[in-house]
Amino acid sequence: MANISIIAFDGTRFDIAAADGSTVMENAVRNSVPGIDAECGGACACATCHVYVDDAWTEKVGQPSPMEEDMLDFAVDVRPTSRLSCQIKVTAALDGLVVHVPERQG
C-alpha cells in the first residue's frame, strides 16, 4: 500500500491509499478526481489520464515507454514530467508520490 496525492487543476488535493499493483489512473477514477477522464480504461490507447509527475518523483516513477510516448503526442501541454497515469503502477517505492492534473485532457 502506498499513499499517493493527486492535485486537481483547481488545487484540490486528493490523498489516496493505493494498493500495490494498481495504477494511479485507477485510483484517480475510484476517488472521482476531476480531470482524469480515462476514456480507454487504462489500455494506453488515449491521452485522457495525462498527469504531471512532481519533480521530486520523476526519477522514481521513471520514463514513459515508447508506446506511452506515442500516446502523449495526443495530450495537451506536454511537459518533461508528463506521464499517462494508467501507466504508473503503484508500488511501496512510490509511497508519497505526488502528481498534478493538467487544465484539460487531449
Judging by the overall fold, what is the CATH architecture?
Roll
Question: Helix coverage percent of residues?
Answer: 10-25%
The dominant shape is: globular
Q: What's the total number of strands?
A: 5
Low-confidence stretches at least 5 residues in length (pLDDT < 50)? none
Rounded mean pLDDT score: 97
CATH level-4 homologous superfamily: Beta-grasp domain
For the record, the CATH class is Alpha Beta
Major sheet: arrangement of strands: 2-1-5-3-4
Please identify the structural class as seen in this structure: alpha+beta
Strand content: 15-25%
Quaternary: single chain
Number of helices: 3
Rg, Å, rounded: 12 Å
- Provide the number of structural domains: 1
How far apart are the termini? 30 Å
* Main beta sheet strand tally, sense and closure: 5 strands, mixed
Q: How would you sum up this structure, described in words?
A:
- The protein is of the alpha+beta class and 106 residues long.
- It has a single domain (1-98), classed as Roll (Ubiquitin-like (UB roll)).
- It is built from three helices and five strands; from the N terminus they run ββαβααββ.
- The protein has helices at 24-30, 58-61, 66-72, and strands spanning 2-7, 13-18, 50-53, 82-84, 98-100.
- Strands 2-1-5-3-4 form a five-stranded mixed sheet.
- The model has no long low-confidence stretch (mean pLDDT 97).
SSE topology:
Elements (H helix, E strand, L loop, with lengths): L1 E6 L5 E6 L5 H7 L19 E4 L4 H4 L4 H7 L9 E3 L13 E3 L6
Parallel strand pairs: 1-5
Antiparallel strand pairs: 1-2, 3-4, 3-5
